[in-house]
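Why do we bother with a discrete structure alphabet at all? Because it lets us treat a fold like text: something you can write down, compare, and reason about line by line. To make this less abstract, here is a complete entry for Glycosyltransferase. Read it the way you would read a sentence in a foreign language you are learning: slowly, and without expecting to understand everything at once.
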Amino acid sequence: MVMKILVVVMSCHKNWHLWKDILDNIKEDLIIFSYSPKAENWYDENHRILYLNCRDTYECLPEKIICMIDQVSKLSCFDSYTHILKIDDYEAMNLTEKKIKNLYTFEEIERADYIGQNYIHVHNNKHYDGARIYHFGKVTPFSYWDNMEYNGSFVSWLNGGRSYILSKKAMTYINQEYNFTNLDVLYQNEIYEDVMIAKILHKYNIFPSELDYGITTFEFPPAIEVPPVIEVPPVIEVPPVIETSNNV
């Protein structure tokens, strides 16, 4: 089967204002996945938004990834894809058609089940101490993970902030491990989505490999002082409801 990559952009409700620019930059083979305000899974094919029946908080990023993999694996409109490239929304702002086409020049991607741009090595489950509390200050106050250290295992993984690519084979294994039937178990086991992916695949003897495939990391621009005479409009936090008939 000829390699075909679907770019899947992880986003959230509050960042919906980024979606138009991302979708305008890349006209095909890219979708955005986010939480569903309808509390059900549905794919808006016209706007290329995959809405997921998941929670929309930092501590539920593993849940969001699992739900996306479940739906991409099951929806027939994605059957032709052999790989997905997971990228965060702010990074996706810098995507171009040229960068996407360049992915097809790497034979390493076609052969790989799990490949990314930033490999993090772990030896004998030992990693720097701060990794176990990296989520402190980011999760929802009073949630399960609020001030709760991650006490699970570490294996070598690919930094999710720098993007990674999964084959359909890898997605199948991940979907067998976690899916919509056991999200509560997932929630109490995992807090780091990229570590979770590596741990699952490690069980099936799929290990991460590193490759600079040219998808650069987003860098926030330097802060600019705005003169007091300029009025900044309030941030709109609720996206407009997009009607669709394609229920999943």
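What the structure line is telling us, in plain words: The domain at 5-210 is CATH 3.90.550 (Spore Coat Polysaccharide Biosynthesis Protein SpsA; Chain A). The first strand starts at residue 5 and ends at 10.
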